[in-house]
Amino acid sequence: MRFEPAFEHYDFQNIYVITTYRCNWQCDFCLFRFNEEREAPLNEIADRLEYSITDSPQRVYIKITGGEPFLKQSLLEVIFEVAKAHQDKVYKIGIGTNGSIPMRPFFADASVRTHIFLSRHDIKDD
What's the CA gap between 96 and 11, in Å, rounded? Predict the structure, then answer.
């Protein structure tokens, strides 16, 4: 029997994209519920992402977080369009979500390998 490690070889650069500081839940532990940062316009995020991808000497892993990323599905679509245009340099896309907002069909047809990370916690019934 041959042992296969449970981790991937790290031959990519991480690019983190915070899509929004808003969330549809109010988890006690989350710092984003207190954040009042300005959110950048879609075209500004797309331009910075494209620059980060093309400037990287390695393939990139785009890690999308928030708040709740699916509150900004139009931004997610822009991120996927940029990734598709540079799919030779995009290792994969990861999205961290609480899973409470349905995905548009757009994401089911993504041409870039995508992982969805669910983070669910107890919510107080106040």
Answer: 21
Tokens of 17: 């994209």
CA atoms within 13 A on the CB side of 67: 19
CA distance 54 to 78: 16
Its pTM surpasses 0.90: no
User: Tokens at residue 82, please?
Assistant: 């940029």
pLDDT by residue for the chain (126 residues), tens only, comes to: 666 666 656 788 999 998 888 888 877 777 766 677 777 888 999 999 999 999 999 999 999 988 899 999 899 999 999 999 999 999 999 999 988 888 777 676 678 888 888 877 665 555
